[in-house]
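Late entry, written up from scratch paper. The run itself happened at the end of the previous shift, but nothing got recorded in the book at the time, so transcribing now.
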Amino acid sequence: MPPSYFSRNCVPARIHGLDTLRALAVSVVVLHHYVLFVSGASTFGWLGDIGWVGVDLFFALSGYLIGSQIFSGLRSADGFSLGRFYGRRLLRTLPNFYAVLALYYLWPWFRDGAPMLSPWRFLSFTQNILLAPGSGFSHAWSLCIEEQFYMLLPALALLIAARRRPLALAWTALAATAALGLAARGWLWHEHVDGQAAAQFNYFKYIYYASLCRLDELLAGVALALLKHAHPGLWQRLTRHGDAALALGLAVLAATFYWFLLDRYGLAVTLWGYPLLALGFGLLLLAALDRAAWLGRTRIPGCQRLALWSYAIYLVHKPLGVLAAKALAAAGFGPESALTIGIVLAVSVLGGVLLYVLVEAPFMALRERYLPAAVSAPGGAARLRRRLR
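Output as recorded:
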């Protein structure tokens, strides 16, 4: 699950709180997929059952980090290069994705016989659209939404920056998109879930995997980035209360998790559960960005490495975990045994580390060599910066 952290030109150092959140996100996703595709039981209790929200936390992180890169670029002396942004993003996300996609298509054993969609659905990042559960590499749906986001947000930001009253227009666009997503979830629920024999199947196909329905957390992250770069005074006041934001965020998330666990596919939680997740994770981001608060200042051992490997782990953990569990089952070890759990989780992490070392790290080095973060201001950048101030 991309994105990368800011380059050293954007922030002075890594933020421990963001490492912690990213490590938490990939951890709960791995636990949830173990429950779904290996054990079929509540192996890790409520945490495994609700672990799908790790994707939403990834979305919130993506919205903030990518939004901050764009908004800081628009306001900087160097300006913002759309071509360079796309180049850096694609070098960050595509090599890992293509490597794993090749394994799915060229090595049927890797996907354990699961059917694959047409390659163009993955290559065009439209696999999530009307995605039927049960296909191979199905967890790429979230990457598709993020890639769509990466392609659209910077171009939209440049377009808004060139208009009159860009800040008001930006906030209006964020609010309107959130409202449109809520309306889409409501309409799709009534059309495809309410009273349908295949209600759960349709919920995932038409709502859970749908781009417009799953923008809440991305929008929350972008809103925080816009707040930071366009309203620095208010941002400084908010980030002085990280511990309070953490407590409030955890309270919001606890209530929302309980609601989803109680009634995962109901109308009310479908409408309002995702905005509440966005609020809760947004508050956790505020807490992580306050370097004086507990989450912002605490360096939890292992989180930085796990955060660094998180994208690679996300891509490979599911097929590797299923294959490892299948081999262990043949040897007489069930999915609830401590040995199976330990080996499957270890294989999931080690597979991600291998992908990171062999594919991601070399391409990241190439990116820094040929597309460094520092850029020269393109024509018109100074005018855009003045309009944003």
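The chain has 16 helices and no strands.
(Scratch paper discarded after transcription.)
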